[in-house]
Specification:
The complex is a heterodimer. By secondary structure, chain A is an all-alpha fold. Helices cover 73% and strands 2% of the residues of chain A. Chain A contains nine helices and two strands, in the order H-H-H-E-E-H-H-H-H-H-H. Chain A has a two-stranded antiparallel sheet. In chain A, a hairpin with a 4-residue loop joins strand 1 and strand 2. Chain A is globular. By secondary structure, chain B is mostly helical. Chain B folds into two domains: 64 residues, no CATH class; 44 residues. Chain B contains three helices and one strand; from the N terminus they run H-E-H-H. Chain B is elongated. Chains A and B meet through helix 3, strand 1, strand 2, helix 5 and helix 8 of A and helix 1, strand 1, helix 2 and helix 3 of B.
Amino acid sequence: MSKRYQLLLGLTLMFVLIPQAAFGMHIMEGFLPPVWCISWGAIVIPFLVMGLFSIQKTVKENPRLKMLLAMVGAFTFLLSALKIPSVTGSCSHPTGVGLGAIIFGPTAMTVLGVIVLLFQAILLAHGGLTTLGANTFSMAVIGPLVAFATFRIIEKAKGPRWLAVFLASALGDLLTYVTTSIQLALAFPAETGGFMASLVKFSGIFAVTQIPLAISEGILTVLVFNAITTYSRKELKSLKIFAKEA
Amino acid sequence: MSTEAMKRENKSFTLKYNILLIALVIALAGIPVFVVKDAEFAGADAKAEAAITEINPDYQPWFSSIWEPPSGEIESLLFALQAALGAGFIGYYLGFVRGRSKRESEKND
């Protein structure tokens, strides 16, 4: 199935599932008006569909990559369970999606991210089922896309590999929470000052808290990435992005 | 210097470097606890809830979690379980590939 066809299929599903009436750390259960829940949920669908096909293709071409795929999934699972204190006096957790996005591409991480978010929504009352779409969009769509793009840009510019991995995962983490702030500001514009006033407020809560955590995630991702490149060179070489390396 | 010695040198450099990086991560998480006074260190999501109520006092959450861990202890158990599963598999994988690459390099010698 071609990429274009996959995208088409995803977009079709998205438009079919968008409700007609809607003109238009994770967000808590019930804390996003229904219109937004459904809209974000619909936007996520094409990425999810493309991700499923991308994973299927990767595994089919080289079944040995299954282990590495599980490993990047485990990394997200681990990092999103760690609630870490931050300079703002509140806690948040990293996302861990950067590693997988660098190795397997952004849409594969949409699929793995949804699994983590579902686990946390159902068993931990963290995030939520109604806000799953919005949280998937920030953590499993924007985060991986930013990480993937950052990595490619620095690689193209011939920057050092560790810097590319560090910035990719740190920015992916940070932008996830900037997205969360935007989503909340869109749903809850302040009476005076509107969207911007709310955005400043929510960014102060989510994004600022996230800065030291994003740096931590960047460092941890570099450590794990180095281990993978040392011991799983073969698997990496079979992937398109690292194909050129000896 | 023989290649064997160079390899060993390289390895101890990597180890030092890795320990330094891990120490940095621990410092990043540990320092706020001691530096930020009178902080509750609640979740950022709980703070956002308060901010929403401030912006729109009439807002009522329209859906609540289908199941909530009955206590903070059980919640932390589940979070620990999630972390353990993740870390467990990462450890298994790294051990597996390390053993494999060692075996292969011995075969080549």
